[in-house]
Specification:
Blueprint lengths: L4 H9 L2 H7 L3 H7 L15 H8 L7 H8 L19
């Protein structure tokens, strides 16, 4: 099950810290893309979109792997948990 356009926008607007909190498995994804975001002092401030721009990576390059990390690629709907209502997932 692919991310909707609104979900894609929400994901790109997550800070790196929020992304890692929602989906800890995304740390390996960032590292595999040679992004030094994990443990970075700016992870609370930079969005995923900003980080991708800094590293010159296209935003769509992370959505397919994120589907696997979140469990959405197996067709089991939204996976994970969030502390705020309305957040992804």
């Amino acid at each position: 099950m692919a991310f909707s356009d609104s979900e894609r926008s929400e994901i790109l607007n997550l800070t790196i810290s929020e992304l890692l909190r929602l989906w800890p498995g995304s740390a390996g994804l960032l590292i595999s893309r040679r992004m030094a975001c994990v443990g970075c002092l700016f992870s609370d401030h930079h969005s995923l979109a900003e980080s991708l721009e800094i590293y010159g990576l296209p935003p769509d390059s992370l959505f397919a792997p994120l589907l696997q990390i979140t469990g959405r690629s197996r067709g089991n709907g939204r996976a994970g948990a969030s502390s705020r209502e309305g957040d992804l997932p």
